[in-house]
Amino acid sequence: MDQFNTFFKSVTSFSSPYAWQRELAADEYCANRLIQIPTGFGKTQGVLSAWLWHRVDRKNESWPRRLVWCLPMRVLVEQTEEVARRSIQRLGLLWDELEDHTGKVGVHLLMGGVDPGKWYLYPEHCSVLIGTQDMLISRAMNRGYGSPRARWPMEFGLLNQDCLWIMDEVQLMDVGFATSAQMQAFREGDTLSGGKYGPCYTWWMSATLQRGWLQKSPETVRLATSIAENRIDAEGRFGRLWDDVKKPLRLETVDKAKTIAELTVKTHYESGNGAFGPTLVVVNTVDRAVDIFEAVLKDRGLNRAVTDVRLVHSRFRAAERSSWRDDFLNRATSAPGTDRIVIATQVVEAGVDLSAGVLITELAPWPSLIQRFGRCARWGGKGNVIVLDLEHKNDKAAAPYSLEEIDTARNALSHFDDVSPLSLEVFEEIHPEILPRLYPYEPKHLLLRHEIDELFDTSPDLSGADIDISRFIRSTEERDLQVFWVDISAQSLPLTEIRPSREGLCAVPFLKARDWLCGKESASTRAPRLKKDMRAWVWDWLEGRWKLVERRDLYPGQTVLVDAHCGGYDPVKGWSQTATDTVPVVSPVLAESSEMADARQDDETLSTLIWQTIAFHGRETGNLARAISVKLVPDLAELFDLAGRWHDVGKSHPAFQGSIRLKDQRPNREDIAKAPSTAWQRVNLYKMESGERRPGFRHELSGTLALLSVLARHAPDHPALLGPWREFLSLSGFGLDEHHIPDLPPSTVEREVIELDAHSFNLLAYLVCAHHGKVRSVWHSCPADQDSGDMRPRIHGICDGDQLPPIMLYTANQTISELSHSNMMLATAAAGLNPRTGQSWTERVLALLKVYGPFKLAWLEAILRAADQRVSAGSVRDPLLDEEVEL
């Protein structure tokens, strides 16, 4: 391992790795793993270096391309991102999104209000994705919090294929830990049935991790029994962090915030006003932390002119949190002689490089206490620990924990007079029989296989609502939505393009947000809408704009825009229902074109470019899709090339062509795929030459119907159409249309489609249909169809019997070939077999899911979408138009 030792030093600047870090990197093959390493022993650097060593430096294909780092809190995400970015920069391999991605590693932050970059457009390259469990698990479940709806399937596919998930500080993840285990078990089940290409594994990591936590379902029992484990054995426990640490313990009974404040000020003074480091107070709720903070500031024993008092909890915006690490949450600012009192909640339990001379902590579950003890005398020496017992009488008073957890921790502490790492490890080894009680884990909700399968479909209901997945991410009442404040004048509405910045978002418990914005409800009083003095909005996918909030719109993961004049935030204390002053605004941002395209049903932003034909844009997309798939799924490279060339055929529909109008400059043809922004006027969107409008039109559905039209015209007995079903349909009394042989034989590009087998045809059709993430596994009318005012059946702006004109397409050998006119047949949308197109669309998708499973099918979908969007971001001149229009 000498080579790894040298590599580790180049990544971290440390002289040499710990033994456990070398052991982790020694394994040539990646696999699921438990990592139980105490605080202070380099878990972050150990894991990052192992992945970089194998996947990036040695190019080991058995290791996944994406490192997905999932953490329970934003402050941990920000710290981990800093470490990852700095380490990869030291290797000279950090991708800056401006240069070629080849050989470089992107580092992307997935948090509300943060532009994560275009990581989802580069499935063939290496990247590190770092985010909270809310943002990452929701995306892995195809319901990404804060992500545009149409982007959900891309992220779903890419986060369940070719990934190494790092579930870090799992003791803080609640039900999210169980969900991650279920997801890994489902992925492995798909692998065993042949449904996965890219490897996907999970490493669960914590100082208090227990193997038994994985044994909560039949699906995860195999994981628990066979999984590898890294920990520091008894013979490895030596050195300063083991031998030179003393943390004497005492318990105190208290009853209220004022008492805790008095004890805090008194203890801080008796310890020399921070002579051995700051005093850290950790309690279990935000409300209690705020009350203690206010009481400390009022305490007469406090020298406010000298002692710095800080409040830390999860209900602050990043704008206020951003200075914490530089000001007081780092090693340099917690040295002996630091006259400071920090009052905090669970947010300091992990990932905070702070060492307190005095730790005062509320009694909490044993895993939480272990983490809190690690914030005292973190780098050796001596620190004093005081545990506060509020003597709760029931679960409501003990919340967010259970009374049983608190009682068990209290009983365990009776065995200690010192809580140094060595004391804790020896105690657990001597008393293994009590470990199940000290480290209980009983998730309130367990994700089942049929539930993740059902989440593959991203279609909203007619009101735009979706399946609520929040119970699989966090199970407490602290499930959050995100709020940002903007100065909106009384007679104005928010701009359509406005989005929150990372610095402006604040996490708020969704139930409390409902009471704050709409008022409290009771058995006799309903509050379904905003209070009279409140103005707040949420994004409407169907309308493509911000709409006024109703109570039902306030659910976990939602993003809410609130008028700054409505209050609700104090820069010193964080979010507060009682704060009435105008909130200082953190400047919002304007959405990029790609985000707007994915955030609303009717949008053609991605079609805005220089003039290009369907044929040329298709050829370029097919070439790139082939190049990507050669690296990821080589046996489908030819199919991806064909899908790329076909994906925009539906743009020849008159509704799309009629949207592009620019006097004297529009090429006189019916196969325009891209046009300058000046050619796109909202008033003309989906307006045909006849004057008829087709709101809700989706060209990808039109292109899929064109594929079916090729078979119906030239090969009605094709295995993907009527071939397997003709006899059954005839015997069942269905009237089969007589096939009329067309005047011309199929063209070269049409023969490419006809020569596919049924499975390949269905996959091609699915890739074409899903290439914007807006029409995927089901076809049904959208609200705009139902408001059309006529009786013709229509789906996404397409009427049965619509015609696409003949257009030109490139073939596999890069020659031009004509695609004949196409007849739009909506019969495929109906359930069951039909005598025109055979299987229904839903049956075709279900057949694909049976072969690939949801994770791989979405991953394949993401490959074509990545190629399309990367090509659409360029400005390559179309040679087919050179003689027609001045560009």
Automatic annotation (TrEMBL):
Keywords on this record?
Antiviral defense, ATP-binding, Helicase, Hydrolase, Metal-binding, Nucleotide-binding
Superkingdom of this entry's organism? Bacteria
Q: Which residues form the HD Cas3-type domain?
A: 607-871
MF (Gene Ontology) = ATP binding; helicase activity; hydrolase activity; metal ion binding; nucleic acid binding
The record ties this protein, via Pfam families, to: Cas3-like_C_2, DEAD
Could you give a single Gene Ontology term from the biological process aspect? Answer: defense response to virus
InterPro entries referenced in this protein's UniProt entry, alphabetically: Cas3-like_dom, CRISPR-assoc_Cas3_HD, CRISPR-assoc_Cas3_HD_sf, DEAD/DEAH_box_helicase_dom, Helicase_C-like, P-loop_NTPase
Q: Which residues form the Helicase C-terminal domain?
A: 259-428
Family label: In the N-terminal section; belongs to the CRISPR-associated nuclease Cas3-HD family. In the central section; belongs to the CRISPR-associated helicase Cas3 family.
In Swiss-Prot or TrEMBL terms, this protein is called CRISPR-associated helicase Cas3
Q: What is the lineage of its organism?
A: Bacteria, Pseudomonadati, Thermodesulfobacteriota, Desulfobacteria, Desulfatiglandales
